[in-house]
UniProtKB/TrEMBL annotation:
InterPro entries: PhoU, PhoU-like_sf, PhoU_dom. This is Phosphate-specific transport system accessory protein PhoU. Belongs to the PhoU family. The keyword Disulfide bond does not apply. It comes from Actinokineospora xionganensis. Keywords: Cytoplasm, Phosphate transport, Transport. Pfam families: PhoU. Plays a role in the regulation of phosphate uptake. NCBIfam families: phoU_full.
Length: 222
């Protein structure tokens, strides 16, 4: 019975890892749509968001059934609870990729981004997709050190996000208020996407160690 239960926990982890792959692809395509003003790719991301929502529902249904099947304790209980929280974060990552794609569609055929900031968003897209891909590996391997290192990549996103403000607030900004608003919102979408990826990684640390990174109890051991 326990062996079968642990097998089901493995299936749950596979479902979460698959969601990571889905949201990574969604942001990769959304960024391409944004940079290239490609309506076809934007529509692909928008229509595909329902699959991410369904994946979250499937993960949660599986997790709740595992809670009902047995009364899990210790690591097993942490695994199920972490999966529920991680599925929520991953769905939000899909929603944020959706917002990027919708911005590309809303401005089509005009490009959303002025040339001044295209390079920043190309890098934001690269790093955030990488975060999601790394989160997938972390879920599959339960690598605590890799999970903790993910915050370094998130710092890169935070730095890029902050720098965007200096660009749009500069006296030489010539693209008007609507464009500045677009850049601000889009930068926020990428920043939040990265935060959710880090949250997923932290859930893995919680499963393995029993403590959330940054908690008082963890800091006491340092």
């Amino acid at each position: 019975m326990r062996e079968a239960y642990h097998s089901e926990l493995g299936v749950l982890a596979d479902q979460l890892a698959a969601m990571c792959s889905m949201v990574a692809e969604a942001m990769e395509l959304a960024t391409r749509a944004l940079l290239d003003a490609n309506l076809t790719i934007a529509e692909q991301v928008i229509s595909g968001d329902e699959k991410i929502d369904d994946a979250r529902s499937a993960c949660e249904e599986h997790a709740y059934s595992l809670l009902a099947l047995q009364a899990p304790v210790a690591t097993d209980l942490r695994t199920v609870l972490a999966a529920i929280h991680a599925a929520e974060s991953l769905e939000r990552m899909g929603d944020l990729a959706l917002h990027v794609a919708k911005a590309a569609r809303r401005r089509h055929p005009a490009p959303v981004l002025p040339d001044d900031v295209r390079g920043y968003f190309a890098e934001l897209g690269r790093v955030t997709v990488q975060l999601a891909r790394k989160a997938e590996v972390i879920i599959r391997t339960q690598d605590v050190e890799a999970a903790r290192a993910l915050e370094d990549d998130d710092d890169v996103v935070d730095d890029l996000h902050r720098h965007l403000f200096t660009v749009i607030m500069d006296k030489d900004w010539q693209h008007g208020v609507p464009s500045a608003v677009d850049v601000t919102l889009l930068g926020r979408f990428y920043e939040r996407y990265a935060d959710h990826a880090v949250s997923v990684a932290k859930r893995v640390v919680f499963v393995v160690t029993g403590r959330m990174p940054g908690s008082v109890s963890e800091d006491d051991d340092l």
